[in-house]
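Provenance and format

Records in this collection were gathered into a single text stream. Each protein contributes a sequence line and a token line. The two records reproduced below are adjacent in the stream.
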Amino acid sequence: MTHLDSQAAASDGTPLASSAETDGFTIEHVVTAGDTSAVGPVYYARLIDWQGRCREQAGMAGAPVFSSDISGEHAMLTRSCSCEYERELWFGDQVAIRLTVPWVRLHLMKGEFRFYRITGPGDPGGELVARGEQIWASAHRAGDHYEPGPWPAELVRCAARLGADVSRAQIAEPYRAVHRSEEAP
């Protein structure tokens, strides 16, 4: 394993480190009756579900090899999850869930979610109705349990595109070979 330095680049030459300014990854959802509680507003646990859906779709788009091996030896485990509610959502509301990743440190990664009530598909603004975060851990199967381990390079590149500071990320061995070949004369 290796720690990624801030000057590292992906195999195609694009920088792994990303600027702090990013739109992140966004999914949109229309609130259905199944999302609401008996009294009308969206049931709070649905926002946690939507965080997971956004994270999974971001992974499928940005790290397709890792995402296609969901039952493999490597796992991205959720260590913590939270959501703060600012406003109620109701049946028929359109919601944009936006994910950014501020950092990857060693075997941990932080995802931040913002939930916006929007006026229509593709609305870049909206009213902030909730915010949440998750901390994920990179782990490798060791018999019948998981142990902390380095991130696959593909996931680190995906996190960088979502705004992450990846300068302290722990990267799996295959990255080292790519990194060294770029430094060679």
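Adjacent record:
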Amino acid sequence: MKIIVTLLLAAALLCGCTREPDRHATDMKTLQKTVGRERLLQTFSQIEPPPMGKEIMNKSDQEIIAWIKQVDDWTHKVLSSPVTGEMDEHAMREMQTQLGKVYTPEMARRMIDYFYRRDPRIGTYQANSTKAMLGLRSEWGQYELHKSQPAEGQYKLSLTGRSKQDYSESVMHHESAYSVQGDRLIVSEFKTRS
């Protein structure tokens, strides 16, 4: 009888040791790497937004191209601010506010939605990828800029970058739209493809 009880206890211990990992423990591990609002605000305080004065549209093509690259670089820094690639709901709202210094609320939301996916189970946002989403960060040999003004206080920019390597040529296309609000420009569209 003692042998049967001992075997039953041993079997119970083995079953207890081989059960699936606790889902709560996995969630806790994930939450430990989540960047919160305060840490994100500290990072944002070190990232200076690009100049957004409306007079930018009166500058030379080369100055406008340099400015577009500056907007692109700032955007990448803001979107990749959570060093762990994960942030909570409060941090996401701060990121949207930060992007709102340059972009319309709708465009800021679209950028976050493109760069992050929400985990509704634990309420965090996780980066879709660690690679840069913005194509202007690469160096292109030649740039060609086209500027138009479809209406008063609105601008559209189209930028083409070309880079030749051996027997092939790579081409990058960027399109962006801006509206004047007060004495500032606000970005309503900003997309790049290659």
